[in-house]
Amino acid sequence: MRKVETLTKSDGSTTYRVRFRHGISAKTGKPLQTSESFDRKADADTFAKWLDALGPQGALDRLYAGEQEKGIPTLDQVAADHIRLLTGIEEGTRLGYERLWARSWGHLIGTTRADQLTADIVRQAVNDLAAGKGLTGEAYSTKSLENQRGLLSGVVARCIELGHLTRNPVKGVRLPEGRRVAVDSIDDEDDAEMVCLTHEEWEALYATFSPHYLPFLRFLVGTGCRWGEAVVLRRGDVDLGARTIKIRRALKWSGDGARVIGPPKTKKGRRTIALPAEVVKDLRPLLDGKAGRDLVFTAPRGGMIAHRTFWSKNWRPALWRAQHCAAHIPKDCRCGTGEPHRCKVHSDPPGACGCRGTLAQSPRIHDLRHTHASWLLAAGTPIHVVQARLGHESIQTTVDTYSHLLPDAQLLAAEAASLAFAGRAGGGSWLPRVESLPDDALRHLAHAVSDETARRSPAIAGRVAVDGAA
């Protein structure tokens, strides 16, 4: 064991010193002589034993472990600083991040020291969130889990930046399959699993709404605007002559939890959107007599449309009616009204009946935006045009959100190339290739051929006449 030296100070007190070599001299390249002093001989003897067993660095780490722990923050503390120091976001967004951390990671691993976070701890926390063990007790959807992992990744990056971690324990952790959030439990665009309606499904839903809200609904699905952008649209933002609207503002949360009107979600959210003819027709009577700052869409009694009221009194009842045929809606049933709890026929509103012509899916209001994008992509609209129309800041957001809707378009393109090869070769039949197309792709191809035939009709007619004369 290392020798423990006893030293007497000028005031008569005694200290105990242990000498050892640690580090290398930059000048000579030889080990440096250093020492540690103690007030108690027992502490000096213990440190001497650590030197023999653990070496200089191990002994020092153990000696100062308590002091090191005092200086290392918890994940809650790192997260608070990370969120506070984020730039380029609004206070409402910052408040949302704080709440997201508190109800997810903060509840499960917030007290963990920043230097002790491991991949296993992260995996267990992810599984706990998926199983509904977060602060709210709800089982999160896949998209919500992705949002939570993104926030944790930012906090971990700060831990690495501060030197508390040397590697990212979040990297490579796979997310479990989240649950589909029920339409009657929440209607939050950030926690939604995407539902894209077909034209037939849209018509089934549209037909169940009260006349007052029909223009508003067709505006949402016809423009892809967010709810918060549509409800604050003003008369001055609409140019019916040019068939365009300008998105300049949106309804959002403030830092104190209140609803305020501010700029759109992203810089590219400030945009001009061309309107379909059907939406222009709907807007004309709504704009009559309104001043430039008046809202385009209002509640039946005037004023801004409230999301919660619209959802509970209009969207959810209309959705239930669209999911049930007349034969499955008893005479006295009130499940398809704004007061389903008063229904004396059913204790709980029954699920979709599944009959022909009814709606099988359960979309949320925000799914009208997804439906709009899906219709554009199915019609062959370039994805960068979809990005501009939706106001996504990055095209990567558009690709990540809607890439699964592109395979049919890719198949159509491949078949078009195949038809070109067959035509150039001068042999073979293109009919079997057309017959192999999916119904949606065949429908789009038929529309395209019809439009092109109409455009070329004089030339085609002349060619047919010449061929017939020959």
From TrEMBL:
The keyword DNA-binding applies. GO terms for biological process: DNA integration; DNA recombination. Keywords: DNA recombination, DNA-binding. The keyword rRNA-binding does not apply. InterPro entries: DNA_brk_join_enz (IPR011010), Integrase-like_cat_sf (IPR013762), Integrase_catalytic (IPR002104), Integrase_recombinase_N (IPR010998), Tyrosine_recombinase_XerCD (IPR050090). It holds the Pfam family Phage_integrase. Gene3D superfamilies: 1.10.150.130, Intergrase catalytic core. It comes from the Bacteria. One of its GO terms (molecular function) is DNA binding. Belongs to the 'phage' integrase family. This is Site-specific recombinase XerC.
